Amino acid sequence: MTEPSAYRIEKDSMGERQIPESAYYGIQTLRATENFPISGLKPLPTYVEACVLIKKAAAIANGQLGCISAEMAQAIVQAADEVLAGSLREQFVVDVYQAGAGTSHHMNVNEVLANRALELLGDQKGNYGRVSPNDHVNYGQSTNDVIPTAIRVGGLLALERTLIPALTEAITALDAKADEFQNIIKSGRTHLQDAVPVRLGESFRAWAQILMDHLVRIETAATDLTLLGLGGSAAGTGLNTHPQYRFRVAEILGELIDQPLKPAPHLMAAMQSMGPFVAVSGTLRNLAQDLAKISHDLRLMDSGPKTGFKEIQLPPVQPGSSIMPGKYNPVMAEMTSMVCFQVMGYDAAIALAAQAGQLELNVMMPLIAYNLIQSIEILGNTIAALTERCLKGITASEERCLAYAEGSLALVTALNTHIGYLNAAAVAKESLETGKSLRQIVLEKGLMDEATLAEVLNLAEMSQMPPNQA
After folding, report:
1. Alpha-carbon gap, residue 135 to 137, rounded angstroms
2. Which of 337, 218, 220, 354 shows the shortest CA–CA distance to 288?
3. What class has domain 408-459?
4. Regarding predicted confidence, which is higher, 5 or 33?
5. What sign results for the dihedral spanned by CA atoms 462, 466, 467, 470?
6. Which of 13, 181, 254, 322 would bridge with 201, disulfide CB 3.0–4.6 Å?
7. Cα–Cα distance, 232 to 443 (Å, whole number)
8. pLDDT-based confidence at 469, cuts 50/70/90?
């Protein structure tokens, strides 16, 4: 008996090539792997899912509209469902840095779905006369409208699954800590110098509010991702598409991901402009900047244990040194800062890529796709880990916080309206030089009586936040 060939022959406009028989990708994918041995980075799973969802929605729409046969549409849909369930993921092999616009990855998706659909129809992989990656899986589509749609869908999926739930949980955790620490008084610090007293709880509540504001900004920016250029085909004119296709495919795709998707008012504009991605990325960068600041604050407040602030204790999650026994480092906060810096870098690359389009197309979309979805997912994963392994377990040293607050020279600020700025400054200077307390110096100089001074230097009142109502 003759051994089956380990290869099949596929043909494209450039000639013939041998494709491993086990491969579900085809000749255009093979050429891309040869052309782009760049980073070893493969497409993100969420991005693959977004592309396959588009193919599924397109097959359903084109089948309903009579553009491809019902049998073919069903086979493509079944192949897509298998990939969405986790099958054949190793077949998506094109490097992130690839042909402009994402044609290589797009054809990788088309070829995998076509070859699996052929198998489901009882045929052989590579028999593209029956199910073609270009003519059938890609019917009425182009890289130029599929890829910007995939970035939109991938971004929406990543936000819904990772970043938005993580932010929501972090806000809840910070609010809970704010309630727990509300009566703990600590020294404020500005310019890394002593400032007037504040409540430790309000520090945590401020962080919760900052993250809530970012959540609102991100959700607002993400609404632009629901307007699709899908159906614009090669240049936004809808060439080779059914008149109802763009409406039908947006409706079906919206149902698949439970989002209110609809065709953009001008398909050419939606295909050319990377503006929605820049806007979402900008909100991620903005979040990363504040999140990095919060992580730095956590590290400062936990610094010590003997020579730092040590106002709070971050949960120790692993040994901190290969040489110093008993050392524990704020590793979750450190990791958070690193991820934030990476997101800021991704945003800069997205901005550069977005302005690099020409005429009817931006060919830098593969970079934008990877950087945007990766930013969303690593931020979401980071915040989730920070919340679970750090924020929820933070404890406070009430005695140390109070000692710093009571010893702060900035308390003299409360005396301004009673003894004047210059007198208050002189009291602070003398306290620093002599080691005497502010209270002692004020009373010695007869600047205030003891009862009034006690009322003015009431730390609980001084650190109380003003009411929100006018």
Report:
1. 6
2. 337
3. mainly alpha
4. 33
5. positive
6. 181
7. 80
8. low
328-347 tens-digit pLDDT: 999 999 999 999 999 999 99
Distance CA(103)–CA(28), nearest Å, equals 9
Name every residue whose Cβ is closer than 8 Å to that of residue 105 and which is 6 or more positions away in sequence.
32, 43, 51, 92, 94, 98, 147, 366
Backbone torsions φ then ψ of 194, nearest 5 degrees = -55, 140
Helix (H) or strand (E) holding 453: helix 450-456
Which residue spans of the chain are classified as CATH 1.20.200.10?
148-228+268-318+327-399
DSSP 9: E
Q: What does the block give as tokens for 290?
A: 């504040």
- Report whether 127 contacts 118 (CB < 8 A): yes
Residues of the chain with CATH 1.10.275.10: 18-139
Q: What are the backbone angles phi and psi of residue 442, rounded to the nearest 5°? A: -60, -45
d(CA 224, CA 405): 47
Q: How many Å is the maximal CA-CA distance in the chain?
A: 112
| Cis amide linkage into residue 319, ω under 30° from 0 | no
321 catalytic, yes or no?
A: yes
All CATH 1.10.40 domain ranges of the chain, comma separated, are 408-459
Q: How far apart are CA 351 and CA 371, in angstroms?
A: 11
| Closest alpha carbon to 96 in 380, 377, 381, 372 | 372
Candidates 321, 337, 431, 437; catalytic one:
321
Residue 16's DSSP bridge partners are: 11
For tokens 């502010």, what's the residue?
A: 438
Host H or E run for residue 201: helix 200-222
Residue pair 385/173 in contact (Cβ under 8 Å)? The answer is no
d(CA 265, CA 228): 9
Q: Determine the number of helices (DSSP H) and then strands (DSSP E) in the chain.
A: 18, 8
User: Residue 231: CA atoms inside 13 Å, Cβ hemisphere, count?
Assistant: 25
The answer to whether the beta carbons of residues 456 and 414 sit under 8 Å apart is yes
Model pLDDT for residues 8-50, shown as the tens digit of each residue: 999 999 999 999 999 999 999 999 999 999 999 999 999 999 9
The answer to whether the beta carbons of residues 280 and 350 sit under 8 Å apart is no
Three-point CA angle 124, 77, 243, nearest 5°: 115
Distance CA 194, CA 203 (A): 15
Which DSSP symbol is given to 314? Answer: P
Enter the CATH code of domain 148-228+268-318+327-399.
Answer: 1.20.200.10
Q: Which fold has domain 18-139?
A: Fumarase C; Chain B, domain 1 (1.10.275)
